[in-house]
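Memo to structure team: turn this sequence into C-alpha cells by end of day. - J.P.
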Amino acid sequence: MKTLIALALMASLSPLAAEDNIWAALVLSTNENPPREVPRKLQDFAPTIRDVFGYNSLYLLGQKKQTISAWSSDWLVPSSDFFFKITSLAQESACYRVRIELFRGKSLLLTTESRLARNAPLYIRGPQWGEGQLILLLEVR
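Reply from structure team:
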C-alpha cells in the first residue's frame, strides 16, 4: 500500500522546466478574534496553515521569486529582519533537492534539506516571533 501511495504522489508531480522559479515567503501566523482577512498572495496557502498549524490570521512579512536554473546558491530576502539562503544540491527528475537556511540578522536559526517540486509547496514552522509563529513557504512555480 505504501508503494502505491508513493507512486501516486510521484505521478502527481509536474516535470521540471528550465524556466522554473522558486517563490519564498515569510509569514507571521497568529490567532486573532475576529480573524484578519488573508492577504491575496496567501489565500491558496491559508487553509493548510489553518489546518496544520492552527492559526487563523496571516501576515505576509516578505517574499521573493528567483529563477532556479541559473543558481546554485542564492539569498532570498523576504523581510528586513529575516532572510533565507537556498543552496541547490541537485536537480532530480521531478524535484530540486535544496538546503534551506533561515537567518535573523547574522544569526542562523534553522538549517534543513528538502525536496521542492512543482504543485507541492513546502511549509516550515519557524520560531515564535512577536505574538505569533513564523512560517516559511517555498514553492516551485
